[in-house]
Request: fold
Amino acid sequence: MKRIIILVLAIAATMFAFAQNDNPKVKYHHMLRDGLSFAPGFMVNGMTNAYISGVLEYYIADHVSISSTAYYFLNSRKEALPAMAELKMNHQLYTGVQYHLLKDKAFDPYIGLEPGFALTQVRANYPLDIENPLLVETRESNISMNPMIALDAGFNIYAVKFFHLFVNLRYATGRHLGGPTAYNLSEFTTSFGLGLNVNFWNKKKK
Reply:
C-alpha cells in the first residue's frame, strides 16, 4: 500500500509539472472522460480484495459532473484470517455526482457521493464435528443484491489534449444480506491510471 501511494504521488507530481508548463486550455463543461484501472480494496474487517475498476463521467457544469463507476471483482485474500468468511463475488456499480473544486484547470481535484449496489456472495467453513475443528464443510450463501453508498475524493490532471491521469480514493459501505448472518462490505479502494477525455463544447465552438 505504501509503495502504491509513493508511486501515485511521483506520477502525479511529474504530470502536474508537465501540465503547468504546457498550460493547456481545459474546458470542463461538456467534457466526457473515462478510465480503466486495477483497484485494490482494503476492507475494515481486515480482508483485501482485487478489482478491475472503470469510470465514465460527464461534466454537466463547470463544477459539477455525473459519474458512473463499476468494480469487477477478481479475488479476495484471507490468509491472515483463516477463520473468517470470504467473498466469492463482490461486483459493484455506482452512479452519483462529483463536485470539482476548481474551474477549467489542468489540475482537477474533486469530491463526490455515489449510491449504488453490490452483487455479492459469501463462502465460509462450518465445523461438522465439535471435537474435530479441522473437519469442516464449505458453504456458500445466496447471491444477494445489496444497497451501497460511497464517498470518494481524488484528482485528474489534464496534461495533453485527449489523455489525463486520474487518482481516486473511495470509501464504500454496505452489508451482504444473502446469508444466515450479515457480512460487512465496508472498504477503502484506490485506483489510478491514464484515461481518455473529449470536450464536446470545444467541438461545437469550432
Remarks:
- The two ends are 45 Å apart (CA to CA).
